[in-house]
Design brief:
Order of helices and strands: HHEEEEEEEH
Structural class: alpha+beta
Strand order of the largest sheet: 1-2-7-6
Helix content: 10-25%
Number of helices: 3
Largest sheet: 4 strands, antiparallel
Shape: elongated
Length: 161
């Protein structure tokens, strides 16, 4: 598979280099390697999200959550303390690493492990300096003043004569 040319995006947009690389990576990534563990991404409200991963069998000590350079990484590694002999082994026991690209100003606020589901809460907090603001327009009003002489015109003519 070949990558997509994002040259038209660069001609009319500034600062979207990361978006182009995200799209390129998403189009070229291997989907088979990223199928475990299953997960949901939920929109809770306009600025709040939750990612829920099914990590049955993993204890809190087996999980690691990190955020670096706008990428949320969840890792799971089970340490087998003793070898077991199985007649059938259907419960996944494998190590995993799942990555999520976070948008600007999205922060991880909480992580909770309940009943084999790891829920990571996210919140988008735009700084005040980045929020839209209204700019007032100053208007200069030029007024024409009619200056009135202190003496009426008739009196000026009579003094000149």
């Amino acid at each position: 598979m070949h990558s997509v040319d994002f040259t038209p995006l660069y001609r009319s947009s500034i600062g979207f280099d990361r978006l182009a690389s995200l799209l390129d990576n998403a189009l070229t990534s291997d989907t088979k390697s990223s199928s475990y563990p299953p997960y949901d991404i939920e929109v809770l409200d306009e600025n709040r999200y939750a990612i829920t991963l099914a990590v049955a069998g993993f204890a809190q000590d087996n999980l690691d959550i990190q955020v670096e350079n706008g990428v949320l990484t969840v890792r799971g590694e089970k340490k087998n303390s003793k070898e077991r002999e199985y007649l059938y082994h259907g419960i996944s026991n494998r190590t995993f690493e799942r990555k999520f690209n976070l948008a600007d100003y999205v922060e991880v606020t909480n992580a909770d492990l309940t009943n084999g589901l790891l829920t990571i809460d996210l919140k988008k907090e735009i700084p005040e300096a980045m929020k839209p603001k209204s700019i007032s327009i100053n208007q200069q009003v030029n007024t024409i003043e009619h200056k009135r002489d202190s003496e009426p015109k008739d009196e000026k003519k009579s003094k000149a004569a």
